[in-house]
Structures are given as structure tokens and as C-alpha cells.
Amino acid sequence: MTASPELGTPQTATPELFKSVFRQHAAGVAVITAQRGGRPAGFTATSLNSVAAEPPLISFGIGTGSSSWPVIAEAEYVGVHILGEHQRELAAAFARSGADRFGPATDWHPGPEGVPVLDGVLAYLVCRVVARVPAGDHRIVLARAVAGDPAGAGRPLLYHQGRFNALRD
Q1: What is the maximal distance between C-alpha atoms in the chain?
Q2: Domain 25-55+64-150: what homologous superfamily?
Q3: 19 band by pLDDT with thresholds 50, 70 and 90
Q4: Of 4, 41, 81, 144, which alpha carbon lies 20 to 30 A from 56's?
Q5: Measuring CA to CA, how many Å separate 161 from each of 7, 20, 24?
Q6: Span 105-123, pLDDT tens digits
């Protein structure tokens, strides 16, 4: 085992420290969508996780202050879209507060279970929500995949150091 270089003196875990540490963690970028009363909602998520293959379960976090939370809080089904490196603008639009996320600049169509499905993504799943677990000022949503398509083309979009990035060769 090789010794690692000295990192410094540990600091007390504050929200700022926590955010600084996770800026070092590269994460895939997804957009979560849902619909309520004919109105689509969605947000950019970097907290998407594969939980289990049998049954096929995913999880993601959402802040209860998010404009999308009221729809996600009641949705029976959600769409989970894996974004490609060509979709930085889409990721930014779904991350920006007050943006017209489903306006003319967004190509989408109604998918299985009426879930808004974004066009041009690397892959997507439609999932039935099975639990919403309180976690501080967020909720962890657990959902079971019921349909999807892995056939999109391209390379994944990543989030690192507060920016959307592409993989390097």
C-alpha cells in the first residue's frame, strides 16, 4: 500500500465543506421528468444511482424547495434521462431556476405512462415511484424501472467542479 500525500488538517463538516468535497466528485448528468395535470416538470440531477438490478431500482435526490418537487411529490411515474456531452445547454436549462424547461428549445414527447421523454438522450427509463424518503431538506426517491431505451448515441455528460464536462480520451 502506498502512502498518500498529506492532505491537511481535517475541518469541521459545514455545508460549505460538504459542497467543496463533492465538487471533487465527477458525476453523470441526468434529467428527471414527470407530469401532473397536463403540466410537465423536470430538473437536472447528478444524484442518480442504480440501486438494484432485481428488481430494477434507481434512486435520486430532489430538494423540497425545488420548483419540480410538488410534481415529483405526487407523481406515480418519472422519466430518468441520461444526457450526452452534446446536451450541456439542456442540462443547464433544467438546472436553472425559472427557465422554460419544456419550451420550444426542448424536444420531447409523451412517453410510456404519460411521462415526458426528452429526445436525443443517450438512454432513458420510465420508472414507477415506490418511495420518497426524507433526507434533510431533500427527499430520496426510489423508483422501479418499467420501460426504457438504451439506444442513444454519443458519450455521457459529466458534472465536476461546478461545471458540465465531457470525458477526455
Answers
A1: 57
A2: Electron Transport, Fmn-binding Protein; Chain A (2.30.110.10)
A3: confident
A4: 41
A5: 18, 9, 6
A6: 999 999 999 999 999 999 9
